[in-house]
Amino acid sequence: MATNRTLTMIKPDAVRNGHIGGILEQMVGSGFKIIAMKYTKLSKEKAGEFYAVHKERPFYGELVDFMSSGPIVAAVLEKDNAVEDFRTLIGSTNPAEAAPGTIRAKYATSIGENAVHGSDSDENAALEASFHFAATEIFA
Ligand code: CMP
Fold first, then answer.
1. How many CA atoms lie within 13 A of 5 on its CB side?
2. How far is the CA of 136 from the centre of ligand 1 (A)?
């Protein structure tokens, strides 16, 4: 299992607010290499599938509605220790608790509309990368 890749999504709130460029610049400037990327929109069904692990949570319906509410940018990023370093770069799930300078502190508006997703483990990074990309769309 690769330990040097993570999957990110720039979420519909950040896209709507014009933050794609700023967020990508911060990712690349922090040493992450983009090895796959697409501008796309999730259907409700696909958003539900992506977040199926949260199906029993009270916020699941809200999360699926939000994630299918507009276009997103999905990308696979490469860096040593990618999963952990990327979670540090984006900050806490709740932007009110995110460290200053982190992507969520700068660009997120609430715990639900929190600007970016980052994989939480190497195993999920691999699953989430294959959710969005065929092997032929990843350029390591
Ligand atoms: P993400 O890192 O993409 O993974 C799961 C998502 O669920 C999380 O970011 C938030 O967008 C969302 N989420 C987590 N907790 C809550 C909550 N309490 N209320 C609404 N959405 C939440």
1. 19
2. 30
Q: Are 22 and 128 in contact (CB under 8 A)?
A: no
Strand order in the sheet with 116-118: 33-40, 72-78, 5-10, 116-118
**Whether residue 55 has pLDDT greater than 70:** yes
Among protein residues, the one with the nearest Cα to ligand 1's atom 4 is: 117
The model's confidence at residue 2, banded by pLDDT at 50, 70 and 90, is low
Number of domains in the chain: 1
The range of the structural domain enclosing residue 44 comes to 5-137
Atom of ligand 1 nearest to the CA of 118: 2
The CATH number of residue 21's host domain is 3.30.70.141
Annotation marks residue 117 as catalytic: yes
Q: pLDDT tens digit string along 6-16?
A: 999 999 999 99
What separation in Å is there between the alpha carbon of 89 and the centre of ligand 1?
A: 17
The crossing angle, in degrees rounded to 10, of helices 82-90 and 122-132 is 80
For ligand 1, the distance from its centroid to the CA atom of residue 112, given in whole angstroms, is 5
